[in-house]
Amino acid sequence: MKNDNSNLRIKDIARMAGVSEGTVDRVLHKRGDVSIKSLEAVTKVLDEFNYTPNILARSLASKKIFRFIYLIPQNQPGDYWSMVEKGFEMAMPEFAGYNVSFEKACFDQFDVNSFNDVADKLLQNLPDAVFIAPIFKDETLLLTNQLSEFGVQFSFIDSMIEEADFLTYYGQNSTLSGYIAAKFLVEQLNTTDSILVIRTKRKGSVSNQTRNRYDGFMNYLKENDLVSKLQLIEAELLDDNEASNKELLRNLFNQNPNLRAAITFNSKVFRLAKKFEALEINNVRLIGYDLLDENIAFLKKGVISLLLAQRPEKQSYLSAKDMCKKLIFNQEVNKINYMPIDILIKENIEAFMHFSELK
Where are the beta strands (DSSP E) in the chain? Predict the structure, then answer.
């Protein structure tokens, strides 16, 4: 076994376990003193990957390059999808030693034609594995059916399509998160109050994630006999015309003086919060999703009442890790992995963010 391969193995294991390379060497060769905490951390990594020198040597000696593509919406720094991308970037150096490369393919999440174009290009140059954000359900199913025919493994992040033959899913239980959102939204409402349900207009079908959250929201209202008691006012915002969105909201509140609550099922609830502030709309319980910086700022100010978060970096990082376990080490992985649904208000957001940074 070559020394450079041996050093690479120890370096990779040390990075994943959060210990020094010397500690890994002592554990592997059962010599020297190692703390219980370090021993447990290294052993956990070895167990997760069913590590043996022979298996890893074969994977390196084969010179097989594993090409992974993650198919996600276009994004800017600070967007929800930039946090998903960060998780893949965290995985890149960790698995580079196993001859794994990651490529990004982005589409416009508000235009189904953009998704189809990117999917077509992907199929023309098939990778070994694909990670998909299934914004457009029907079109995603067309893609995944073809990937399955070619024997290409794929995993879902952010939301899942149960009828597809995916390897893993990491993300929220989307329907449950909508159910929980409804429970918190209506708890202080009277039966004479109205709820504003906001979506973003898309060229194509409704977002798979949005649909699932909305279904969960409606399930709660139905189970508690609230559909006929609380008036729902549904509206669509434009992604590229904030002046029009502001006027739409102004008219809705003028025409519906009993509006006391509002919800949107995507990560850009800050857009609503900005309009509420500009229009001096007060005493409205506003709920949305995800820990974008602008969302957090409006949560701290009290304009947003509650955020439901889902740890996007962990979703993509763990998806990549499981794909490596399956393709490189032929280890079984758990198919559906629900992330915690973090419920955050202005009173607990500082502690949550501080703890997350420490971790």
Answer: 66-73, 100-107, 129-132, 153-157, 169-171, 194-200, 231-237, 259-264, 285-289, 306-309, 336-338, 342-344
Tens of pLDDT along 36-78?
688 778 878 877 776 655 555 555 545 678 999 999 999 999 8
CATH homologous superfamily of 66-171+311-340: Response regulator (3.40.50.2300)
Q: Where are the domains of the chain?
A: 3-61, 66-171+311-340, 174-309
For residue 211, give the H/E element and its range: helix 208-223
Amino acid, res. 286 = L
Give yes or no on whether 66-171+311-340 and 174-309 have one common fold: yes
Across 30-34, 87-91, 118-122, 309-313, least confident range: 30-34
Domain 174-309 in this protein, CATH class: alpha beta
To 5 degrees, how large is the angle CA 77–CA 81–CA 82?
Answer: 30
